[in-house]
Amino acid sequence: MHYYRLNHYLRKSSLLSDDQFGFTPQNSAEDALVSFCDIIKEGKRKNHVTFLISEDIKGAFDNAWGPGILHLLKSFKVPKNIFCLIRSFLQCRSADLTLGNVTKNRVLEKGCPQGSVMGPFLWNLTMVDLLCNISKFQNCHKIAFSDNVLLIVQCKHFQDVCTLSQSILNNICDWSELYKLKFNPLKTKVMKIYKKSTVDQRINVKLGDVIIEEVRNIKYLGIIVDNKMQWKEHISYVSSKSEKILLGLLRI
């Protein structure tokens, strides 16, 4: 009931992001991938240099910060009765751990309640603020599926894409500190879409103090995207996986 009332209010007020494809009605991973391909095609048509930056949030659902979510609800001017319901949902929680005859109780201050309808929706609210924050940057597209965020940065010149990408990453770091979340720099990857003029140029951007690894393919929503958009790595991956399943079935 909480979910339907809050969802109705936010959608009626156009406060949710169209860039979030996860846990949203009439959206799927396939829709996110189609949107991604359309953006890449448009960048190629304009002869732009394109970077893909795949972001990884550490323990996303477990670390969603209740006060941050409540602050967002206040900024959205959510009706008081709905706000109070959500506040009690987030704040009045504790967990017990029993080992032998000893039981320890701990008040839970972070995390979206798992297994609930409301939990994923409240996580999406946190992501709304991140996506709106990134929207301030021109020439940057973003696609989110739950806690998976893919940034697509496009400019005419290679150095301009590097500069813009770094500005966006700095902004994301500031946002994550505000909401007490952490992006994993070792799992964050950057890839440039193949363009003859940029083959020998190397990307040098950082997340915090860590240089992001440049790769030739990125796995996003189960699909391996290569820098030439030829899908050879993904086809090989699916073929190998299918072969292993078939061999397993033949042994039965």
Structure description:
- The protein is an alpha+beta fold and 252 residues long.
- 44% of the residues lie in helices and 21% in strands.
- It is built from eight helices and eleven strands.
- It has helices spanning 2-12, 29-45, 60-63, 66-75, 80-91, 118-134, 158-178, 232-250; strands spanning 49-56, 94-99, 102-107, 140-145, 148-155, 189-192, 206-207, 210-211, 213-214, 217-220, 223-226.
- The strands form four sheets. Strands 4-5-1-6-9 form a five-stranded mixed sheet, with helices on both faces.
- A hairpin with a 2-residue loop joins strand 7 (206-207) and strand 8 (210-211).
- Helix 4 packs antiparallel against helix 5 and helix 4 (66-75) packs across helix 6 (118-134).
- The longest helix is centred in the middle third of the chain and has 21 residues, at 158-178.
- The radius of gyration is 21 Å and the shape is globular.
- InterPro entries: DNA/RNA_pol_sf, RT_dom.
- This is Probable RNA-directed DNA polymerase from transposon BS.
- GO terms for molecular function: RNA-directed DNA polymerase activity.
- Residues 1-225 form the Reverse transcriptase domain.
- Keywords: Nucleotidyltransferase, RNA-directed DNA polymerase, Transferase.
Descriptive terms for the model:
252 residues; alpha+beta; five-stranded mixed beta sheet; two-stranded antiparallel sheet; 8 helices; globular
